[in-house]
Amino acid sequence: MASADHISGLVNIQKIQDDVVKLWNVVKSQPEISEEQKNRIKALYNGVARSLCKTPDNCPRPGIP
């Protein structure tokens, strides 16, 4: 598996956030997904959101509603 310490090019943080919210709505509507699994998904998203931000000032508030 490849590893990268730096993301090159422009990243549209808002589009990623919007896409993750859409995905989250699908995830939370699935009764077979446990609360523990949902919490792990939230934690993964927060990690991705933090890694994509170049400075704290230009980052959307992390977290899934």
Provide structural commentary.
Helix content is 52%, strand content 0%. It has 2 helices and no strands. Helix 1 (13-28) runs antiparallel to helix 2 (35-52). The mean pLDDT is 74.
Provide a short characterization of the protein structure:
The protein has helices at 13-28, 35-52. The chain is mainly alpha-helical and 65 residues long.
Summarize the topology:
Elements: H1 13-28, H2 35-52
Helix pairs in contact: 1-2
Main sheet, how many strands, which sense, barrel? none
Strand composition percent: under 5%
Query: What is the residue-mean pLDDT, rounded to a whole number?
Result: 74
Count of DSSP strands: 0
Helix content: 40-55%
Write down the overall geometry.
elongated
Spans of 5+ residues with little confidence (pLDDT < 50)? none
Which terms summarize this structure?
mainly alpha; 0% strand; 65 residues; 2 helices
